[in-house]
Amino acid sequence: MKKLYGYPDSLYKVQTKYCGGCGHGVIHRIITGLIDEMGLQEKAVITNPVGCAIWADLYFNTDTVQPAHGRTPAAATGIKRILNDHLVVCYQGDGDIAAIGTAEMIHAANRGERFTTIFVNNAIYGMTGGQMAPTTLVGQKATTAPRGRDPVTAGMGYPIRVCEVLAQLEGSRYLARGAVNTPANVRKTRGYIKKAFEAQMAGEGFCMVEVLSPCPTNWGMNPEQSVNWLEENMIPVFPLGEIKNTLAANINIDKKGAA
Q1: CA–CA distances in Å: residue 47 to residues 103, 145, 226, 243
Q2: CA 238 to CA 222: how far, in whole Å?
């Protein structure tokens, strides 16, 4: 009898450290389910840096490496070049990828490094106390922007759309943005991540899937409010869908993200 659903072997059965309503657990479930589906548990390496992502190695029953803050693409580059038959995944947050790790991320994409980045965007620094992140929305409050992000009079700049920045680089092959605020968006996000994983294993260049994720604790909301806030505020700024797709024709999953 064919097994249609079950707890992933690649995901440890342990109590989570993530806050109630956080999207990291859903994203972990997507990634580990796909690793199992593709038969890659013994050939998967998760690289996770400082931030809420630092806990990922408690949950992924695969090889994991914990690089310094922002240096995950550099570590993943070395791992993938040596173990080119492995699935190498950078699991990064918005502060990590778009602040301290900006140079590593941009140059890895420009070189067309053949690993996959899962970029969790919750528009805030989650682990360190809710400071303004590079992706914090205009007007959104943070501990370092108590009156809301002001791009003009306070010189705080604007939220960085990482996928759109990387889309300009010839080395990037597949860039998509999903969300985990609704079952439909979870399904589409799973499809984007599956396509990115398959592209990596087929030898394609740099692939990244950005995932919009709620952070109820640092947004000062309950879980229900946070998924609604994401829908109403984040998605208009960070539109969902495939941002760039220059993959070979043999990497083909339907446009709705079906797996």
Answers
A1: 17, 30, 28, 24
A2: 22
Q: Do residues 52 and 93 lie in contact, with contact meaning Cβ atoms separated by under 8 Å?
A: yes
CA distance 179 to 163: 14
Q: Is 224 exposed, middle or buried (0-12, 13-18, 19+ CB in 10 A)?
A: exposed
CA distance 204 to 115: 9
Residue 250 pLDDT: 59
Domains in the chain, ordered, with CATH? 24-245 (3.40.50.970)
Lowest-confidence region among 49-53, 99-103, 173-177, 248-252: 248-252
Distances (CA, A) of 165 to 159, 160, 170, 240: 12, 8, 11, 15
In the chain, the N- to C-terminal Cα span, in Å, equals 20
pLDDT in tens, 219-259: 999 999 999 999 999 999 999 999 999 998 656 544 433 33
Q: Phi/psi of residue 23, each to 5°?
A: -85, -10
Backbone angles phi, psi at 179, to 5 degrees: -155, 160
Q: Has residue 160 got a pLDDT over 90?
A: yes
Residue 35 backbone class (left: φ over 0; alpha: ψ -120 to 50; beta: rest):
alpha
